[in-house]
Amino acid sequence: MNRRDYLLRKLALALVTLAVVVVLNFILFRVLPGDPIRSVIGRNVRISQDTQAALRAQFGLDKPVFPDQFFDTLGQWARGNLGISWSLRQPVAEVLAAKLGNTLLLIGLGQVLSIVFGVLLGLVAGWKRKTSLDVCALTFSLVAWAIPTFWLGIILLAAGSSWLGLPTGGIVSPANAGKPLYQVLPDVARHLILPTLTLTILYLGEYMLIMRSSILEVLSEDYILTARAKGMSDWQVLRKHALKNAMLPLVTMIALNLGFTVSGAIYVETVFSYDGLGKLFQTALAKQDYPLLQGAFLLLAISVIVANMLADILYTYLDPRVKAV
Amino acid sequence: MKRILFVLTILSLALSACGGGAAKPTAAPVVLHIGWLGKPDTLNPAYAFLTESTTIFDLTYNALVTEGPDGKYVGSLAKEWKHSDDGLVWTFTLRDGLKWHNGEALTAEEVAWSIRAPMENPDGWATNSSYVIGFQEVKALDDKTVQITLENPVGNMEYRVSFLYALYRKDFEGFTTPEDLQNFNNFNLIGTGPFKLQNFDKEKGILVLAANPDYFEGRPNVDQVIFQTFENSDAMVQALKVGDIDMMNEVPSSAFETVKGFENVKAIASASRGLAELIINSAPATNDPAPIRNAALEDPQVRLALATAINKKDLVEVVLQGLGAPAATIIPPVLGGGFWHNPIKDVDFDLQKAAQILEAAGYTLGADGVRAKGDIRLEFRLQFASDSSNYPRVADLLTGWFKEIGVKTTPQAVDPDSLTAAITPTADYDLVIWGWTSDPDPDFMLSVMTTDQFVEGGWSDSGYSNPEYDALYLQQQVTLDPAERQKIVWQMQEMVFNDRPYIVLYYDASTQSYRSDRFTGFIESPLGLEAAISLRSVKPVK
Prior knowledge:
Chain A has helices at 3-30, 36-41, 49-58, 65-78, 92-127, 132-146, 149-163, 185-219, 222-229, 234-261, 266-271, 277-286, 290-318, 321-324.
């Protein structure tokens, strides 16, 4: 099978997965107990039963779930319209787009940094196995991996705001509210330091551990011995033979993590009052805001599927065996 | 690690230098920076359900009258008002020189239109259509006079009118469907209030208000008020400590002592309108569907025993860290107008007596420590709403006390939606711990106990049904004389207290704090430090 056929098959599979996810999402949220109208209006207001009935009719909740609500939703989506959020009263696509940018900025930065430092640290630790450097790096990674997210976040927040004067939350200072982010980059960067640091430390451990065990496995292979026997330098062995093979499990890991990037880092977003997708998912669920939930989970499904496809494509370059399957 | 810290320091210093430089305006305005744990769901009064929205409306809009710090209603847009002897015609006279934020003069016709809008389109004006129920006609008699004609007398007219803001007609009259009206976000809010909306960046959780120099009761002392949303109360406490914010409108009770200890910070605990209660399934046996519950709960003696076995003082000390008060009735004392029923004598906490009550009622202690009378064992489900961090501890304490008198309860956390579904329409529960935040007027809390409200979409969660109570509820709605109405409201509280569909546990306190080294002049009242009257008077410390 050549690369094109392989990719086409993957693409077809991805589309089937997406269709299944769409249907599942539709059913899943509607079998939850409770009344979306009550969730939207909360418990402390005096909304009469008539008004609740009017809202129910407006949202189409007075019609049967199947076929009416189901085909209404599909019809809307087919026209490229994700609907209007019941709780926020803004178009779902607009809300998602606004938060997607914020989330990608934060998590993307955290991921890139943790991948770079995690891979380097894992590489060095694996190469210098059983030295004190290895032990230190290993301990640090295990600890970093095990720390509860919100705890690390709140400690860094307290330290950073007390001693370094860093902001305690948000994405820009109030004075810069309403301006596009690119116009106030220094301010955004200041707000990003602590959450990014938290995320980097958290992911770093995971990447380091994977990279270390992977490189150890590769280094014990016969072809490494052969390479050394050919008289290659350490660096050449590492770069030409070890690294590429050791990267395979890491690519899987990165692809999986990046896919879920879009779901946001709910703890980090909460600690630093960062307006991202994670918080949005949480509120959408709490409010039983079907249009928002469906849109959000569609976005999540697409990003996981795309990330996995990218990993599959990368495999074809990293590992020739894949194409032969 | 040291090096990392060093690099970070340099980086942050460099960034703060350029960040600060860009933000600093020429003449330093006085900015009051408030942190809160939410944000308005919308600035459109037709579809705003969160209290944060009401807070902003209070600062930017005016109604004819408004609630004062003592719970009495005072004139706002109206200078004076009177009603006919039968209470059916209310006439409001506007102040002179009222102006919109854009400088245009406000007319009585615009005020009348704002009240007519929810009458004519109740489906669209979801938030305030309930305030105009029974309004027959609203018109402007001249430029300064608004007249409201009612179908029946309304006992809490001032309260109702205080939520009917004067709205800028051009912004709201063009919508044809309820949906279009509700989708309008009103980001360029034009009102008459002491503050003008300068910017609401909903995504970033920042709302900026500027002083209205032409405000009819005088310009506020601060130039700007910024509301910043925090998702996390610990971060907000830290922000107050380092001075990122000047005031926070909700201190978590676990952090209250810590905040009190901060230098230059004043922390205030004051009575609030929140309460927590133990709900007892009281749905009538004739309810459709038939209630599913332990039959022992229908026995008044069992209810009395449960009430006697609850140490409300301990609840306040342990759960609220002393920030609250033991409660007996569904109306919180902080409501103005003397509606709280003071003479109700709560049952004293006495485990021995509680056990005796059960013994006398025929419930004898079994070998497993649980009392029973025939087939009826005193074993109840004790569910609590998972939306409060207090309820799990309340459930633990109650379970401990109940165990001592031979009553077994099994606590279970349930999310509010599932809990609502279990209560109505299915009536499938025994005991539930939950809470309410009362309205400034007792009407809403009283309505929760009426028979009509125990349907899907209604607010009753006890299923209490008492025709006499229902009749009194309707009567207090049309009683104009405050003393007369108070009497009825007291009588209703007594009924609920004696029949015990609720055992009311405690009244919450609201906790707020501010930087006393920077600002002074806040007005402490049940309205909160962020109420318009308080933020108008607050001024910087010189």
